[in-house]
Write a structure and sequence with these properties.
The chain is mostly helical. The chain is built from 3 helices and no strands.
């Protein structure tokens, strides 16, 4: 038996979760059917696919060439550091410490120009 009260207590909140079934194969089939219905009006859809594939390869080549240049620069910097360390000792690392603020200054300066 519950006594009447002026103070109301909060009821417990319950989490209600209703699981849904996900079928990736069915979703892929539906997506392909929608794309086929949308491309039904075009006469030659294979040219569209060919152009997108060639564009993807061009983009991939550009990224890989940029990565190879960066890798070569890193390898050259490591080689120069090692050779400098062999000939001049730890003074090479002090030169890097002196040049690093200059590098960060120009890097931040370039970012500020691109934002404006």
């Amino acid at each position: 038996m519950k006594f009447p009260s002026l103070i109301r207590t909060s009821k417990f909140s319950q989490f209600h979760y209703e699981p849904r079934y996900y079928d990736p194969i069915k979703e892929e089939i539906e997506g392909k059917l929608k794309a086929a219905r949308a491309n039904k009006d075009t006469e030659n859809p294979s040219t569209q696919y060919a152009s997108s594939i060639s564009a993807a390869f061009r983009k991939r080549e550009r990224k890989s060439s940029q990565a190879s240049v960066v890798q070569m620069l890193i390898a050259a910097a490591m080689l120069v550091t090692f050779v400098g360390w062999v000939f001049y000792g730890n003074d090479v690392f002090y030169i890097y410490l002196l040049l690093s603020p200059l590098y960060f200054y120009f890097r931040l300066k370039g970012r500020n120009k691109s934002k404006n």
